[in-house]
């Protein structure tokens, strides 16, 4: 593996791990993502949006359990969905 390929893989790992696939620790990255980044020619072909949604749905399900005290996942995506479908919760816009 070339140094440049390793740099790109590391960058994508940190980017995806700290934005789309965030865990509750907020300071660790999930190593499972790294498996999908090894072949850089295939990275662009993956459905990252669908993967982020599936991960967020799973985390929402885990957050509804009795002992859960926090939530993780791409909460910006959840917030955008709430603003889209629940206009009452949108921030007020001053014109």
Automatic annotation (TrEMBL):
Domain of life: Eukaryota
Stored InterPro entries: AminoTfrase-like_pln_mobile, MAIN-like
Record's protein name: Aminotransferase-like plant mobile domain-containing protein
Aminotransferase-like plant mobile domain span: 5-91
One Pfam short name: PMD
GO biological process: meristem maintenance
């Amino acid at each position: 593996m070339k140094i440049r390929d390793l740099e790109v893989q590391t960058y994508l790992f940190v980017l995806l791990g700290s934005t789309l696939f965030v865990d509750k620790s907020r300071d660790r990255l999930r190593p499972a993502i790294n498996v999908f980044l090894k072949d850089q020619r295939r990275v662009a072909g993956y459905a990252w949006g669908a993967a982020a949604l599936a991960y967020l749905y799973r985390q929402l399900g885990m957050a509804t359990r009795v002992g859960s005290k926090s939530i993780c996942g791409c909460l910006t995506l959840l917030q955008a969905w709430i603003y889209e479908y629940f206009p009452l919760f949108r921030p007020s816009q001053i014109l």
